[in-house]
Amino acid sequence: MCGIAGIIYRENGAEHDVGLDMTRMLQSMKHRGPDSTGYALYGEPRDLVLMRFKLADANTPRDFDFHDRLRRHRALVEQRLSRLGAQVEEIKEETDYAFRVALRYDGELKELADLVEDVPDCEVLSLGHSLEIVKDLGDAETVASQYGLAKIRGTHAIGHVRMATESDVDISGAHPYWAYPFPDVAVVHNGQLTNYFHWKRRLERSGHRFQSECDSEIIAVYIAEKLAGGSTLEEAMNESLDDLDGVFTYICVTEDALGVAKDEMAAKPLVLYESDGLVALASEEIAIRALIDHEIETYDPYEREVLVWGR
Question: Which of 40, 77, 179, 276 has CB 3.0 to 4.6 Å from 185, enough for a Cys bridge?
Fold first, then answer.
């Protein structure tokens, strides 16, 4: 079933308690997806490159060699960053398998991601100057507590609660997805693409690789490629309604915008609230009411509708 949510503050880039707000929204929809929870969190663009990566999963067997293996692989990651000339400002161990790195790097992000992912068991979850993806097993409060997300301030975010139906319960199968190798683009999605394999082959022929078999990742890379070609976010999302077949509602975020699109059947739910200072949207109204303690009016986007907001 799954649930998706998005939030963007409309106060000229002012940062808010986006980690706490998104946790409230996602926790209210725990019944839609108790297996894993994911966040794509955005703040003011930084001079530093921010990278989130993992070297194992929460459910990886903790055998006698587990921690020694992680230490070796973490050292390999740092060696490869140094080989590319990246200057590591900070590397933080969020859990015993998930890490956040802030670094100075002027080269191609694809080269950096590819070299780091050559380390055994390493998966880059996000890379950019604004975006940070955090995802793990459990409900929103569990993940937020584990990663200290109540302290995260930012300008906009999306989130996802997952009920695993077609793949394993692990971090690799959790949403959101970063649009590798494009910086600061991510997607959450509720539904199914029926031409998934067509677009996966087409994008792979263009040189892209995919971390999962999830169609949300296809949408993210599709949109990012359009943006790289000069399209606006609104133009790219409108084109997606002609190119992507299926029943879906998705939310896409970039460094400075958030957009939502519904397919022509509009069968997958989404509720939207707008005020002068805030836009919030989610699969259920209960998620929006988790943020707002007064009476509100919400509405549902129409069939084939695309809406985009800037921060």
Answer: 179
pLDDT band at 48 (very low <50, low <70, confident <90, very high): very high
d(CA 213, CA 55) in angstroms, rounded, equals 19
DSSP reduced 3-state for 243: helix
Using CB atoms within 10 Å of the CB of residue 250, give its burial: 0 to 12 exposed, 13 to 18 middle, 19+ buried: buried
pLDDT tens digits, one per residue of 188-227: 999 999 999 999 999 999 888 888 888 899 999 999 999 9
278 strand-pairing partners: 9
pLDDT tops 80 at residue 168: no
Q: Tokens for 43, please give them.
A: 């703040």
* Cα 227 from Cα 167, distance rounded (Å): 30
Q: How many angstroms separate the CA atoms of 70 and 64, rounded?
A: 12
Contact criterion met (CB below 8 Å) for 233 and 176:
no
Per the DSSP assignment, residues forming a β-bridge with 192 are 247
**Pairwise CA distance, residues 192 & 32, whole Å:** 16
Answer whether 282's CB lies under 8 Å from 3's CB: yes
Q: Sketch the domain layout of the chain as residue ranges.
A: 3-45+130-310, 46-129
What is d(CA 300, CA 7) in angstroms, rounded to the nearest whole number?
Answer: 16
* Class of 3-45+130-310 in CATH: alpha beta
Helix, strand, coil percent values for the chain (each to nearest 5)? 30, 30, 40
What pLDDT was estimated at residue 311?
81
pTM for the full model? Answer: 0.95
- The arrangement of strands across the sheet holding 49-54 comes to 87-93, 98-104, 49-54, 123-128
The 3 state secondary structure assigned to 10-43 is CCCCCCECHHHHHHHHHHHCHHHCCCEEEEEEEC
Q: State the catalytic residue, choosing from 2, 122, 214, 252.
A: 2
Domain 46-129 adopts which CATH fold? Alpha-Beta Plaits (3.30.70)
